[in-house]
Amino acid sequence: MTSKIYVGGLPFSTTDQELKGLFDEYGTVESARVITDKLSGRSRGFGFVEMSNGQEAVAAIAELNGTELGGRSLLVNEARPQAPRQDRAEVGWR
Fold it and tell me: How far is CA 5 from each of CA 21, 28, 92, rounded to the nearest angstrom?
């Protein structure tokens, strides 16, 4: 079972490959993705990493949370499930 990890505080220049490399040291990384703005394509400063082993994920979180990358302090923790979105029609958007 994979473990999904949230990584906040990323430098805006961080790539998916750099994010993966940061976590490779702690175990098998299934995927690593820096979240980007849909319109500009710029990084939003956070991303998600999926690791194949829960124990490796816990070790990575413990070791990387609070460390610096590119002059910014990382916030690393277990990702929470995404909240369901309301349909735009339900909230009155047009």
Answer: 14, 13, 34
| CA 2 vs CA 6, 13, 49, 55, 66: distances in Å | 13, 27, 10, 10, 23
Per-residue pLDDT tens, the chain, 94 aa: give them: 679 999 999 999 999 999 999 999 999 999 999 999 999 999 999 999 999 999 999 999 999 999 999 999 999 999 988 788 776 656 555 5
Q: Domain 3-78 sits in which CATH superfamily? A: RRM (RNA recognition motif) domain (3.30.70.330)
Residue-wise DSSP of 12-79: TT--HHHHHHHHHTTS-EEEEEEEE-TTT--EEEEEEEEES-HHHHHHHHHHHTT-EETTEE-EEEEP
The pair of structure tokens assigned to 8 is: 């906040």
